[in-house]
Structures are given as structure tokens and as C-alpha cells.
């Protein structure tokens, strides 16, 4: 029981969106490295966005978007591949945006 307050605190402090980064040793040739997803070549010390909406360097790629995880039950999320973002809207009205909450607002 003494761990219950800690468990509740962790649940309340969970983020309302998730994002991820991946670190790796990329394939390097001379002064370039290769993107694992697109197989495109980039100069070392450069930054680029690949076709799956990740912002990359030669040593890492991070999602260029956040994934909403807490929103009303009558809403849904849909990924916009052109703008690299999730849209959250009413299930019965795609034109009506929905709020995305953090754990304290529920």
C-alpha cells in the first residue's frame, strides 16, 4: 500500500502524446551516410526528414510528430502523412477538432 501514491503519481504524470527516437550506427561511405528507411544518401553533419516523417541525422532519427494518446471517446486520431502530424476529430464530424488531454485534465 505504501507504493500506491507513487503509482498514482506516475499514472497522472503520463504524457498526453508519445514520440520516439532511434539511435544507431549508420552506414557511412566517405563523407556521407545512408538513411535506413529511404536508402537515400546524406552528407555527414546534415539533417533531413525521411518519407516516414522522421527527422534524422547520421546517428539518429526521431519522429517529427507526437502521437496523441488521451482524448475523448467520441473522437479519433488520423495521421496526415503530408504534414507529418496527427489530427484528432469527432468520429461523426471530421471537421470538428477534439482536445488532447494530459493526465491531470481527465
TrEMBL record:
Please verify whether the record's keywords include tRNA-binding: no
User: Which Pfam family is an annotated match for this chain, by its short name?
Assistant: PSP94
Gene (name only)? LOC108929491
| Bilayer-crossing regions | none
Provide the alphabetized UniProt keywords: Disulfide bond, Secreted, Signal
Q: What is this protein called?
A: Beta-microseminoprotein-like
What's one GO-annotated cellular component?
Answer: extracellular region
At the top level, the lineage of the source is: Eukaryota
The family assignment reads: Belongs to the beta-microseminoprotein family.
Q: Where can this protein be found? A: Secreted
The positions making up the signal sequence are 1-19
Amino acid at each position: 500500500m505504501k507504493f500506491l501514491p507513487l503509482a498514482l503519481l506516475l499514472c497522472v504524470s503520463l504524457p498526453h502524446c508519445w514520440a520516439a527516437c532511434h539511435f544507431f550506427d549508420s552506414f557511412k561511405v566517405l563523407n556521407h551516410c545512408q538513411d535506413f528507411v529511404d536508402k537515400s544518401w546524406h552528407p555527414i553533419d546534415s539533417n533531413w526528414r525521411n518519407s516516414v516523417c522522421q527527422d534524422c541525422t547520421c546517428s539518429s532519427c526521431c519522429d517529427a510528430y507526437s502521437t496523441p494518446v488521451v482524448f475523448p471517446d467520441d473522437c479519433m486520431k488520423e495521421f496526415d502523412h503530408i504534414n507529418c502530424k496527427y489530427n484528432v476529430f469527432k468520429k461523426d464530424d471530421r471537421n470538428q477538432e477534439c482536445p488532447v488531454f494530459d493526465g491531470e485534465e481527465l
